[in-house]
Amino acid sequence: MELLRSVTGHILIEGHRGAEGVAVENTRQAIEAGYAAGADLLELDVQRTVDGELVIYHSYQLPDGRWIRDLRTTDLRAVIYKGHGLLFLEEVLEWVRDKSIGLSLDIKNGFGFDPRVFLDTLSRVEAHKLVDKVMLIGWDHAGLLLCKKHNPDIKTCALIRGRPVDIVQMAQNARVDAVNLDADMTTSVEVDALHQAGIAVVTAEVISPDFSRPVKVGADVVCCKDPGAARAAISVLSLD
């Protein structure tokens, strides 16, 4: 999986939670929509159940207040969220096997920082022989480093909120291949410094999309709700 624009020759489009702008987030419909729209990557949230299954779901709790991590797989298979059953990582890995698209798996392990969700996700990716099509991302940089130590070939991306004093050192400490920055906190200064260190930059354009920003600052990947709209907008901007 190549991420740097200097290598790919263009900005990659990453569909947030599949393509939450056109379908219910983290569902099969969302990943199908993102794929149909021509996304290069699909970002999906991964959590671990109490019995070790990996489910695709963003919030730590279901709408009824139950915590995902406290539930068993059988409990979650009965859950209907916004009219859809929950998707599991095994299904996604089977789906992506023959598709010309990559996955960004956002590992959710807050409120406890259980490393098993990182290692179990990596193990499933390895078992499916999809290391070259998957990037692991997360707020827990220690968890990403753990995965990198287990398998140096897996791509990793650190989610960062704010403007660190030394963003390059922070990324290098976690041995990540990319960092994901909020659009309003990204400038060409950070992007250039990261690029000099061989680290790719993902900008999150999910709140108030302005696709001219990532083009202007030199970002490598744009994370967005509607991959089709992003592709069209960036194509026009690239012609300017």
Properties at a glance:
single chain, alpha/beta, TIM Barrel, two-stranded antiparallel ribbon, 35% helix, globular
Q: Taking Cα atoms only, what radius of gyration do you get, to the nearest Å?
A: 17 Å
Strand content: 15-25%
Structural class computed from helices and strand pairing: alpha/beta
Overall structural domain count: 1
Overall pLDDT confidence: 95
C-alpha geometry: globular
Number of strands: 12
Succession of helices and strands: HEHEEHEEEHEHEHEHEHEHEH
Major sheet size, sense and barrel closure: 8 strands, parallel, barrel
* CATH architecture descriptor name: Alpha-Beta Barrel
Q: How many angstroms separate the termini?
A: 28 Å
Strand order of the largest sheet: 1-2-7-8-9-10-11-12
* Broad CATH class: Alpha Beta
Oligomeric state of the chains present here: single chain
Task: Write structural notes for this entry.
It contains 10 helices and 12 strands. By secondary structure, it is an alpha/beta fold. 43% of the residues are buried. It has a single domain, classed as Phosphatidylinositol (PI) phosphodiesterase (TIM Barrel, Alpha-Beta Barrel). The mean pLDDT is 95.
SSE inventory with pairings:
Layout: H1 5-8, E1 12-15, H2 28-36, E2 41-48, E3 54-56, H3 73-77, E4 80-81, E5 84-85, E6 87-88, H4 89-96, E7 102-107, H5 116-127, E8 134-138, H6 141-150, E9 155-160, H7 167-174, E10 178-182, H8 188-196, E11 200-205, H9 212-217, E12 221-224, H10 227-239
Parallel strand pairs: 1-2, 1-12, 2-7, 7-8, 8-9, 9-10, 10-11, 11-12
Antiparallel strand pairs: 2-3, 3-6, 4-5
